[in-house]
Amino acid sequence: MPTWVALLRAVNLGSHNKVSMPKLRDALAAEGFTDVKTYVNSGNVVLDSSLRSAAKVGQAVHDVILDHFGVDTPVMMRTGRQLAKVLEWNPFPDAASDHPQLVAVLHLAGEPEAVAVETFLAGDYAPVRVAHRGEEVVVDWHERFGRPKVDRALKRLGVDATARNWRTLTALVEMTRQ
Predict the structure, then answer these.
(1) CA angle 21, 15, 167 (to 5 degrees)
(2) Strand, coil or helix: what is 68?
(3) Once rounded to an integer, what is the mean pLDDT over residues 10-33?
């Protein structure tokens, strides 16, 4: 049975989109998912499913969240192997080692149009660094400078995304190996 990681976008931000992680674990288990675990309170779920496609698992997780919590949020699905490949790729190893909380991986809902990626990568965000591969964008925020400019450019990619810092990504990969 495949192990999946569901990355929920914009849950538990202040008083918005409240989803209790213990209740979510229970709801997902009641719907047939197994070995359901969550990591921190920001919408990271590791689970096993007999469903074989990311689209089907993501839709099922989305529907559980909508039905049980009334929250309609995008769910980005990855396998542990896919996340491990992002760790291996690591376009900014110095930053990931020095300040993992400031290196963000944006998990995209799909691959953006090539022209949008070219425009995004051509931007001048210094001292912030950006890299793209497939359905992931990695941003080294370099002490949080340049965030508004990069955020506006990311929106122009035209796909939903949810960000996790390098520390969280590393933890999620470890959870999929257990």
Answers:
(1) 50
(2) helix
(3) 91
SS3 120: helix
How is residue 44 written in tokens? 């990271």
Task: Report the alpha-carbon distance of residue 76 to residue 40 in Å, rounded.
Answer: 17
Which pLDDT score, from 0 to 100, does residue 146 have? Answer: 64
Q: What is the pTM of this model?
A: 0.93
Helix ranges, the chain (H):
21-30, 54-69, 80-89, 93-98, 114-122, 147-155, 166-177
Q: How many residues does the chain have?
A: 178
Q: Tell me how far apart the alpha carbons of residues 124 and 102 are, in angstroms, rounded to a whole number.
A: 18
**139-162 b/e (C-beta count within 10 Å ≥ 16 → b):** bbbbeeebeeebeebbeebebbbb
* Beta pairing partners, 162: 107
User: Of 79, 89, 101, which is closest to residue 164 (Cα–Cα)?
Assistant: 101
